[in-house]
């Protein structure tokens, strides 16, 4: 995709997430010039109805579709809406953002001294011309993360720092939480919240060019 | 170490490297308040005399010792000097920073479609009291990195971006180069240039407290 960066930058790409880490990867690291339009999707899916990989993909898809429909209704159809959702999975249990400092302490105790999985689901919703339904693509990427044993006073100090509170699994690998990680197997950016390599290989630049043209036209060509 | 962060921050820590990535990990991610004093060590070791792990450790050690001696000569003895050196190893060949865009193109072609190792050596030089020699500790950390196959036009576009030029192995995993990486095995920060977890477990906070007291006193206690 890097050799097509100009075509990608020229498209109207929307990121349906306000996660500063995803914005950083797409707009600072890759300079894709995506506009950020946070989704209002409630994220009220019933976890028991899904595998973890299915759950993050469906969350990502619903986030992207909500933003796509809203922009089309506002007569600002985008070329591409990117949705993403990240969870931590330990013993087949899905860990999301902690709701309290106590919940963060419990999650970090569960992750201490063992391996867990980080799953990010990504949905790509490409705009279609003339009122046709959008085309969709989605995938989930998994990375294994090995945690050192964390003494209780270390967990307390980390929770007191505030870093865990807005992060799936109650830690940020790109922050002080990175000091707990002895190693990973798989894509690092996936743990941060966006599987960059897989996105770059999966993005369909030809489709993006077509949907970009469609989005910029008000009526069919004659 | 996180539960001892205040003691670490109170010490006079010197980072003998001006690598913006190392400064970021120590001072932004971990907020260690280290002062940056780049080493003037020539980095003229003969590679053939060392294993790759021995080579990066000795480079790190020489960098740290040069800065330690300079600060002591200026009567500003530090508590701790941290030296670090990172190389990429492919087929037992050490790849450092490219000397030209052509060299960067060749290195990236060598890394394309296969795995390589990233080695970072770290040296910790703790200050001693009253003219005694400093105490030293050093280690090397290895991470395996898997690269996707890179078509020539992708390599050309990446070299043209300028990103490869100041980086061992001609890529930055924390930048656009991260999009080439299908996965890693081991510590991510080690690939960026500083093995954060290993440093945190290896740092001897008690020794740092003692050398901090020594450094701040002008004469022996009575």
UniProtKB/TrEMBL annotation, chains A, B:
InterPro entries: ITPase-like_fam (IPR029001), Maf-like (IPR003697). This is Nucleic acid-binding protein asmtl. Gene3D superfamilies: 3.90.950.10. Keywords: Hydrolase. CDD domains: Maf. Pfam families: Maf (PF02545). Its cofactor is a divalent metal cation. Transmembrane segments: none annotated. GO terms for molecular function: nucleoside triphosphate diphosphatase activity. The keyword Transport does not apply. It comes from the Eukaryota.
């Amino acid at each position: 995709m890097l050799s097509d960066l100009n075509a990608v930058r020229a498209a109207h790409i929307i990121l349906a997430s306000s996660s500063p880490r995803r914005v950083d990867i797409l707009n600072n690291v890759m300079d894709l010039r995506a506009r950020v339009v946070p989704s209002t999707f409630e994220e009220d899916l019933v976890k028991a109805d899904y595998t973890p990989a299915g759950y993050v993909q469906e969350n990502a898809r619903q986030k992207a579709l909500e933003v796509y429909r809203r922009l089309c209704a506002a007569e600002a159809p985008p070329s591409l809406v990117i949705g993403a959702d990240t969870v931590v999975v330990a013993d087949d249990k899905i860990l999301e953002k902690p709701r309290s400092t106590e919940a963060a302490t419990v999650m970090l105790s569960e992750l201490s001294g063992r391996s867990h999985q980080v799953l990010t689901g990504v949905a790509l919703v490409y705009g279609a011309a003339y009122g046709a339904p959008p085309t969709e693509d989605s995938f989930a990427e998994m990375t294994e993360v090995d945690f050192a044993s964390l003494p209780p006073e270390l967990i307390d100090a980390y929770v007191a720092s505030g870093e865990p509170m807005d992060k799936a699994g109650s830690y940020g690998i790109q922050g002080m939480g990175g000091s707990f990680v002895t190693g990973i197997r798989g894509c690092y950016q996936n743990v941060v919240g966006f599987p960059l390599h897989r996105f770059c290989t999966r993005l369909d630049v030809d489709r993006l060019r077509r949907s970009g043209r469609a989005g910029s036209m008000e009526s069919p060509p004659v």
